[in-house]
Amino acid sequence: MLSIVYLVAIAAEAMAGALAAGRRRMDVFGVCVIAFVTALGGGTLRDIVLGRFPIGWTQHPAHVYLVVGAGLLTVLLARHLHRVRRLFLVLDAMGLVAFSLIGSDVALRMGYELPVVVMAGMMTGIFGGVLRDVLCNQVPVVFRQELYAVVSLAVCLLFLALRALGVPPDVNTAISFVAGLALRLLAIWRGWRLPTFSHRAAWD
Amino acid sequence: MLSIVYLVAIAAEAMAGALAAGRRRMDVFGVCVIAFVTALGGGTLRDIVLGRFPIGWTQHPAHVYLVVGAGLLTVLLARHLHRVRRLFLVLDAMGLVAFSLIGSDVALRMGYELPVVVMAGMMTGIFGGVLRDVLCNQVPVVFRQELYAVVSLAVCLLFLALRALGVPPDVNTAISFVAGLALRLLAIWRGWRLPTFSHRAAWD
Amino acid sequence: MLSIVYLVAIAAEAMAGALAAGRRRMDVFGVCVIAFVTALGGGTLRDIVLGRFPIGWTQHPAHVYLVVGAGLLTVLLARHLHRVRRLFLVLDAMGLVAFSLIGSDVALRMGYELPVVVMAGMMTGIFGGVLRDVLCNQVPVVFRQELYAVVSLAVCLLFLALRALGVPPDVNTAISFVAGLALRLLAIWRGWRLPTFSHRAAWD
Fold first, then answer.
1. Contacts of C54 in chain A (CB under 8 A)
2. B202 within a domain of the structure (yes/no)
């Protein structure tokens, strides 16, 4: 199940990336790069940091085609996408949660310690968006958005807690996925945010 | 032949990087870093993504000296470089094409599938410039410039097509190099561009 | 001794990173990411470029806790930190020098050639700050600051020179550390800078 969600999620992330590229008036190539980085950049960074070679997508060229295709499709459909804005938010939330679970699982299988497992999940979940924003020359929105990264953190911790309690992997994945998705959608709906840290010292 | 072109190209890219650093009023050290990243950053990223360690330049310290030397020379000569602007454009085009061919070749030898081979060529060809622009805090120009990345893509595809047709490697490299260079120079001369995607939805 | 200095230094770098995040009004999560990247990003990049897996901090979860804790503490104490500004500058200088020595040592043990050893030291010393500034969407300050990177370079060269002269490692580390710290503090005190390269050609 998670692998179907994964394919839907990378396509949705690629489309979100393409829209961000459009805001910067990039050409069609730039759109493809930003779509790719948004969808697969988090997993790429995770694999590099964990020393897991070959990197995931290099063994699945179909993912590359899917992501580039979704980016190009976005260029054609951009004018109509505002009608499905809510669908996008749901797909993005599904991606965030699915990526986090997949990333944690990868690090667990490699035998890393729990803090690294959590960080691998969060890197997979949110760093595609961070890299997209760096390439689009803006402060990463996930550092300021409604409970975005925290959802990733919560999903990873829940997954590890249920695992420690002996819940079977499939059940665990399903529970963590639904709980994470609910938390993210609630956060958007209610506008929940983390406290912000604003600092400007006299001596800066 | 390609290795001489390669040395000329990394020196030219380093000089272009140094000029970009000058536009941001960096100090001499910043100039060296940006020169290095522009010239060798694409190959570094390619090696990391392909899991190819040790990374190329770590085994060729002479390349590091060449790149840093070219960056420092640029600081001394900057005032006179506008006289050789056209030469620069040609050297940059040669670098783009040579980097793309070298990058494809590296991935081919490692046994990666064709989409990854093309992406390795393009990463080598254009990501030095992307990293330079990220460090100089601007939207990467290759995402908006006249047929820049597309030349890299076309060179990689031509090289793979000729290879599939059984053309010997040396002949293939020569043909792909000349064709790519011609395409890039034509694109500059005629101002060819990719269609641009400009998007600002009501709901952004 | 260097390992205690190292722990103090990563905590100090994490606090400096958290303050930078506060200048961008990030939320508490963004603060933790920037703290982490500032403190451990240089070493992470070094390990990736040298092909040294698993990466250092993945084997020392305590470092992750220390860095995140220091970042969160900074949010609580931010209003009072201007009183210890000078202490911060000294801790930051200690971090720069300690990171540089540790980075060189890592590359030496892996058998890399001397230019790569120096670059590994410099990457460890200054790229945490570079990554911090990229994520905060500004031109990296180390490319423009008073003798920052040059101190890292000088420390690495001194360490290698004393090593070539047969000075025992511990004595060498102590001398290089004190000399580097003195150079950095002198540079701040006297406002020493590298020459800046400012360039804007007619044809840009």
1. 50-51, 112
2. no
